[in-house]
């Protein structure tokens, strides 16, 4: 493999380790938290609290406002998690959270456009509130949700991930998965045994690709991989650094175990 690789901090974006440059938070980056329309499990509360405290932007995507509101009521933390904005076409946002958050100063921003999904609208809004002079490449986006619920929503979330991977760093997290796009070329993925794995997969969602890997239980060597052919699923992370060389962008997904409070 080439030594000129692209570094992916992976779960270290969620739990930075400042002792090493590779695992530390990238100091020049803003952090945005986007909450999609999926329930927030209580076992994610510690991670939510940590990222919320670090985030420069906290945005609920339409019905994500309902989910955050329900989480806040259930955990008696409603006033501690007031988002900066709730955006989308707002067809899913219920009256009670809308009124509560509006009274707390949350921006309620409705997009009329029906040619883009609420997730896409959320990214458009985020770009409009970045610091002056910053672009999408200057902000790491952590997304709660998007990997469960309706299959068509899940697939479109992955599509948005692929469409944006050259513009920005986006990490999708749920109580079981951490997922991001690995671009074409040679890539180095950092893994943290405390939260990553052991199971993982490399999904060729952009079309047939040629894959070479190091650091997995079952490595590939210039192996064709496609949705209709071989896919590296239910593989095992065997190293704290995984190398992936690919001729097309692929999705890296790993079993995720959020740290408990």
TrEMBL record:
Pfam families: TPK_B1_binding (PF04265), TPK_catalytic (PF04263). The keyword Nucleotide-binding applies. It catalyses: thiamine + ATP = thiamine diphosphate + AMP + H(+). Its EC number is 2.7.6.2. Pathway: Cofactor biosynthesis; thiamine diphosphate biosynthesis; thiamine diphosphate from thiamine: step 1/1. Residues 185-250 form the Thiamin pyrophosphokinase thiamin-binding domain. One of its GO terms (molecular function) is kinase activity. Keywords: ATP-binding, Kinase, Nucleotide-binding, Transferase. It is an enzyme of class 2 (transferase). CDD domains: TPK. One of its GO terms (biological process) is thiamine metabolic process. The keyword ATP-binding applies. Belongs to the thiamine pyrophosphokinase family. This is Thiamine pyrophosphokinase. It comes from Coemansia reversa (strain ATCC 12441 / NRRL 1564).
């Amino acid at each position: 493999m080439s030594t000129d690789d692209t570094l992916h901090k992976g779960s270290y974006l969620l739990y930075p380790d400042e002792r090493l440059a590779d695992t530390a938070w990238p100091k020049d980056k803003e952090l945005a938290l986007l909450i999609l329309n999926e329930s927030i499990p209580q076992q994610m509360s510690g991670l939510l609290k940590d990222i919320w405290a670090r985030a420069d932007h906290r945005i609920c995507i339409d019905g994500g406002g309902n989910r955050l509101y329900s989480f806040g009521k259930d955990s008696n933390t409603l006033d501690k998690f007031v988002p900066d904005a709730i955006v989308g076409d707002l067809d899913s946002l219920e009256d009670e959270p809308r009124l509560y958050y509006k009274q707390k100063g949350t921006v309620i921003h409705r997009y009329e456009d029906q040619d883009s999904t609420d997730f896409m609208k959320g990214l458009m809004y985020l770009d409009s509130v970045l610091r002056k002079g910053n672009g999408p490449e200057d902000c790491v986006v952590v997304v709660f949700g998007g990997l469960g619920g309706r299959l068509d929503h899940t697939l479109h979330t992955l599509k948005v991930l692929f469409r944006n991977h050259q513009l920005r760093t986006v990490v999708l997290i749920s109580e079981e998965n951490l997922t991001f796009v690995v671009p074409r070329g040679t890539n180095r993925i950092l893994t943290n045994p405390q939260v990553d794995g052991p199971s993982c997969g490399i999904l060729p969602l952009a079309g047939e690709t040629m894959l070479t890997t190091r650091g997995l239980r079952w490595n590939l060597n210039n192996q064709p991989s496609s949705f209709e052919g071989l896919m590296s699923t239910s593989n095992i992370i065997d190293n704290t650094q995984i190398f992936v060389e690919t001729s097309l962008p692929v999705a890296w997904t790993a079993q995720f175990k959020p740290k408990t409070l």
